[in-house]
Amino acid sequence: QVQVVESGGGLVQAGGSLRLSCTVSGLRFADYAMGWFRQAPGKEREGLSCINMSGRAAYYEDSVKGRFTISRENGKNTMYLQMNTLKPEDTAMYYCAAAEGYGGMWCLLDQEMIDSYWGQGTQVTVSS
Questions:
Q1: Are 46 and 110 in contact (CB under 8 A)?
Q2: How far apart are CA 66 and CA 92, in angstroms?
Q3: Please, which contacts does 9-14 make with residues 24 or more away whose CB atoms are closer than 8 Å?
């Protein structure tokens, strides 16, 4: 059974950093583009950053460019999101997702047409 598990969320002061991890089991990790999404109360889910199967290409939503860095370690079936200079508006539930055979920018596209595996989310709260 496919399992997608996020970790690393928590409470942090504005300007601080967090590193999220996403570990996947039950599939061939290297065959999946990966991505990070978030959803804040009252807002739609948005794609933040995604990375291609090899890890050689990464893409970012404008609001997190220069602050967040996505990476993956295929030998560990794990993807990471390093989040620096966090802002209160970054407060949200953060989700990891895997999409088989897609290009690296898949998380920035309309998700209605994309089948993917999702984790349960990890909460990130940034205080001012």
A1: no
A2: 19
A3: 9/94, 9/122, 9/123, 9/124, 9/125, 10/123, 10/124, 10/125, 11/125, 11/126, 11/127, 12/86, 12/124, 12/125, 12/126, 12/127, 13/126, 13/127, 14/86, 14/87, 14/88, 14/126, 14/127, 14/128
- How does 45-56 read in b/e, with b if 16+ C-beta sit within 10 Å? ebbbbbbbbebe
Give the whole-angstrom CA distance, residue 84 versus residue 68: 6
Burial (0-12, 13-18, 19+ Cβ within 10 Å), 75: exposed
Question: What's the DSSP call for residue 103?
Answer: -
Q: Which two three-digit tokens encode residue 58?
A: 């990464």
Question: What tens-digit pLDDT sequence spans the chain (128 residues)?
Answer: 999 999 999 999 999 999 999 999 999 999 999 999 999 999 999 999 999 999 999 999 999 999 999 999 999 999 999 999 999 999 999 999 999 988 889 999 988 888 899 999 999 999 99
Tokens matching residue 9 = 């969320």
